């Protein structure tokens, strides 16, 4: 670059000594060359290597988020730096905050992303903005959305409650006439679970689906999951005998699906989505899928295996879910989005902070489209998302 600048100065000096009749032409040439040099300098600066930090729980604490971070390091080894929060998060909260802040010590760090199912890390983002206001911050955490929107540039969360609308709607499209909801008291005491159930009941009424609520033995106060699963094993055939195979069954608890999906293959009822809609929940066990260790994150292959087994059971189109876990999708999406913003030197304005852009970008970057909605009408940097469905 120094050599280029010296050359330009030499050109300027030579041109200033030429005949006056070419003065205007020479002036234009000098300006053009100088402009090209300035543009080259700008391009060099914009193409300078940068880093994106991703912070997740450890493998043993949350396997999906950890794997997402590790896979992105493998994809962008010189760009992505992955660190993990302490195992004993609550007792070592300050350590976690310090670890996040340490990423900002790297002058090449241009974005810091925290993806964690815990709360309490907001002070790290406040300090990042004091220390490095140039760093783009993105998070998926459990802190108050209002505070996250205040201190973090971009926030994303899976919209678990909106699924109270989308799941019955999909069940209806898949041919269901009855919607059965299995849960238990301690689970229904959780605000998110109760709100989703209420949304399901309301949506079923609007769609003309019969909504049936059934309470199972409580695995948290009784004999654990075994009693709950045994109840499902006995009750599901009774309900299908009563309502017929044009019934969708939803369970609010993950261990329920070892029974629900197994019974679905026998009785041919619909399962529009599991409580945690991922191809790795119950499907591998129930369908006896032989998944090699190196294919654990190969969701295209796993989904193809499920589709084949569904066809063998004459269940094509009766089972559905999401093509990959949202806990893996979201961290990867956030890294791809940060990369796009930094490489294109974009401002966080209405061109980025809008549903249409995020929907389209998610499909382009991830191959799986997400459906984004702002958390409320007064917040433009916090979005809730659900993933498009895959039908087996």
Plain-language structure description:
By secondary structure, this protein is an alpha/beta fold. The protein folds into 3 domains: 2-43; 51-152 and 327-367, Rossmann fold (3-Layer(aba) Sandwich), CATH 3.40.50; 163-324, Rossmann fold (3-Layer(aba) Sandwich). The chain has 15 helices and 12 strands. The chain has helices at 2-16, 23-46, 63-75, 93-103, 122-131, 145-151, 163-173, 185-188, 191-207, 225-243, 257-267, 283-286, 299-312, 326-343, 355-366; strands at residues 51-56, 80-84, 109-115, 136-140, 154-158, 178-183, 210-215, 247-251, 320-322, 370-374, 382-387, 389-391. A 7-stranded mixed sheet has the order 2-1-3-4-5-11-10, sandwiched between helices. Helix 3 (63-75) packs parallel to helix 14. The longest helix is centred in the first third of the chain and has 24 residues, at 23-46.
Unreliable spans? 1-30, 36-47
- What is the gyration radius calculated from CA atoms? 27 Å
Instruction: Look at the helices and sheets and give the structural class.
Output: alpha/beta
Query: Tally of extended strands?
Result: 12
Mean pLDDT rating = 90
Strand order of the largest sheet: 2-1-3-4-5-11-10
Largest sheet: 7 strands, mixed
Amino- and carboxy-terminal Cα gap:
57 Å
Helix count equals 15
User: Helical proportion?
Assistant: 40-55%
Named CATH architecture of the largest domain: 3-Layer(aba) Sandwich
CATH fold type of the largest domain: Rossmann fold
Q: What count of structural domains?
A: 3
Outline, from the CA principal axes?
elongated
Report strand %.
15-25%
